[in-house]
Amino acid sequence: MGKRRELLIRLVLIVVVIGCLTHTSWGQENYPVNVSHPSPAKSDFSQEDILNQAQRSFDRSIDLFNTVATVMGLLVALITLIVAIGGILGYFKSRQLEKYTEQAKKSADQLKGYEDDAEKIVDKLEEFESKIDEINEKVLVVGEDKLPEIEEELDGLRETARDFPPLSEPFSEYQKRISNEYGKKIEFLEAFGVPLKPEDYLSRGSDFYRSKEYGEALKAYNKAIELKHDYDAAWNNRGLALAKLYQYDEALKAYDKAIELKHDYATAWYNKACAYSRKDDKENALKILSEAIDLDAKYKEKAKRDKAFINYWNDDDFKRVVS
After folding, report:
1. Closest CA to 251 of 226, 229, 277, 216
2. CB 53 within 8 A of CB 59
3. pTM
4. Alpha carbon of residue 19 to chain centroid
5. How far apart are CA 47 and CA 49, in angstroms?
6. Nearest CA-CA partner of 233 in 218, 221, 241
7. Closest residue by Cα to residue 304 from 322, 284, 280, 288
8. Residues of the chain whose pLDDT is less than 50?
9. Residues of the chain with CATH 1.25.40.10
10. Domain 147-257 in CATH 1.25.40.10
11. pLDDT tens, position by position, 156-215
């Protein structure tokens, strides 16, 4: 608004200056007309000369008037245009401001709705938490009475789990059911703060492994090793989880530890050969595979179907090892 006012003031000043200049020029043009009136005997001008001079002065005045009128018209048109443009810009700015104001109101209403929803959710969570506390109290009362019974059942499950096949081999329906029941008993005891045994973490890790949650499986195997450092089965399974995470060098170290603890551990030898094969180390892969087959001939046929050795199925050296 300040800039428009300043521009209008400047235009008015220009008009005033032009008017002053016009007045001055008109006065100067009229000086020649202001002739003296000598006596008739001495005058050098005729009446016709005076009329011609007056006509010329009149024509110049008319031309000057027309020029001033044209300039004033242009100035008026310019001022009108500036005012119109200012009005248009002000209109658009006003519309834009109204639009932003409307959007702000909508956003405020939407935020208010979110706030109301959040309050409802908080109320429901508090109600749910209260119900959970009630359930926990009931579970504690019932659970504490059943702890000895569950611990006894868990001992039997641990004994059964020792005969489970390696992770690389499928489970029967019976073994799946036992494994599932074993996992539930572990969770129940853990909820009451009963310390778990290494084989419990081994079973938990195997459940995660079969669910393809290899990171969680690795954590469980690490916990089993922490409780029992010479747990050869946990070291072997740790190697399997690391291999699934493509950490083959670390997996080889785990297999080496399992073999160190139990030299005739055929499964660990075979898994180690698979890791070398996936690293594309043919020499060590076939050498270790031969060791595994010497300990357990079943790995001869297994290697022919195992995709870990797919790159060597048509290799003559591989065929000699598994023949």
Report:
1. 277
2. no
3. 0.55
4. 69
5. 5
6. 221
7. 322
8. 26-43, 138, 140-142
9. 147-257
10. yes
11. 777 777 777 777 777 788 877 877 887 887 787 777 788 888 999 999 999 899 889 999
Tell me which residue has tokens 């291999």. Answer: 243
**pLDDT in the model for residue 62:** 72
The reported pLDDT for the residue numbered 10 is 66
Rounded to the nearest angstrom, the gap between the alpha carbon of residue 185 and the centroid of all alpha carbons in its chain is 40
Q: 3-state class of 189 per DSSP? A: helix
Q: Nearest Cα to 278, choosing from 302, 312, 254? A: 312
Distance CA 63, CA 68 (A): 9
CA separation for the pair 15, 69 (Å, rounded): 11
**Tokens representing residue 265 in the block:** 């551990």
CA 268, 166, 149, 193 dihedral sign is positive
Q: Which two tokens stand for residue 42?
A: 């001495």
Q: What are 311's two structure tokens?
A: 């790159």
Helical axes 266-278 vs 248-261, angle rounded to 10°: 160
